Amino acid sequence: MSGILDGKKIVVMGAANRRSIAWGCVKAIKKQGAQVILTYQNDRIKKMLSRIDDDDPKIECDVAEDANIKKAFDEIHDQFGNIDGVVHAIAYADKKTLTSGLHSVERKGYNLAQDISAYSFIAVSRYASQIMNPGGSIATLTYMGSTRAIPNYNMMGVAKAALESSVRYLAAELGKAKDIRVNAISAGAIRTLSVTGIKHHKQLLDMSKARTVDGKSVTIDEVGNAMSFILSDLASGVTGDTIFVDKGVHLIA
Ligand code: NAD
């Protein structure tokens, strides 16, 4: 079957289980003809991932250290050659930081959330771009809590604002230097492992669902399909953008 990603090699970072947005991306990207290389945070996640995927190659990459990211992309290059795209679907904040209001967030928690959720995208873009073919595409996942004060999203909203700004600067730099596009998909709220760390996450999910145009939450498959487009040559004119895939939640006041 021919697809819009035929012949491309795409690295997907952040699949942990069947509910992960990254997993929706893996399924959609493969359906469109690409070869997928997965990265996982640690042995625990590798075990979880292996339960749902036993055929795609998997490389360890804890993004907390630049050396790990460099090593992972070196390994990917050694084993698979140049790549054509990366999906960065990674975020983290510790429980205390996530559950206290922003005014109570301490320096350590702030730095950790920014480090894993925003800085890691810069480092990933650096090392990925070194082994990426011209015309390649790098994309991350964000949420509209970056521009609106969503109840209980707090620190993660601040990190997502930095992430979206990074998308614009990286798009300007890497477009010019290497013909690589950089974008973000702003997904609607979906019940995943990460979301359960947010205080009163059920309210967040219910509120989001109630505000979609058809009363149904967006799915990881719908996000994956939009991601396939962003990674494909059909999106050659799209860069530095944050594209909403939330079934219209961002429209409703
Ligand atoms: P998830 O829990 O399935 O995925 C989060 C992933 O981040 C996990 O695979 C985890 O291993 C990885 N991760 C955390 N720390 C890491 C580290 N140090 N090194 C490497 N990997 C690390 O949850 P998800 O909701 O699929 O999250 C994926 C992305 O989508 C995140 O950026 C999240 O903020 C974003 N997002 C989620 C929603 C939602 O409602 N679920 C909405 C918009 C955006």
From TrEMBL:
One of its GO terms (biological process) is fatty acid biosynthetic process. The keyword Oxidoreductase applies. The active site is at Y143, Y153. It holds the Pfam family adh_short_C2. NAD(+) binds at G14, S20, I21, Q41, D62, V63, I90, K160, I190, R191, T192, L193, S194. The keyword Lipid metabolism applies. Coiled coil: none annotated. Substrate binds at A93. One of its GO terms (molecular function) is enoyl-[acyl-carrier-protein] reductase (NADH) activity. Keywords: Fatty acid biosynthesis, Fatty acid metabolism, Lipid biosynthesis, Lipid metabolism, NAD, Oxidoreductase. It comes from the Bacteria. It catalyses: a 2,3-saturated acyl-[ACP] + NAD(+) = a (2E)-enoyl-[ACP] + NADH + H(+). Its EC number is 1.3.1.9. Pathway: Lipid metabolism. Belongs to the short-chain dehydrogenases/reductases (SDR) family. FabI subfamily. This is Enoyl-[acyl-carrier-protein] reductase [NADH].
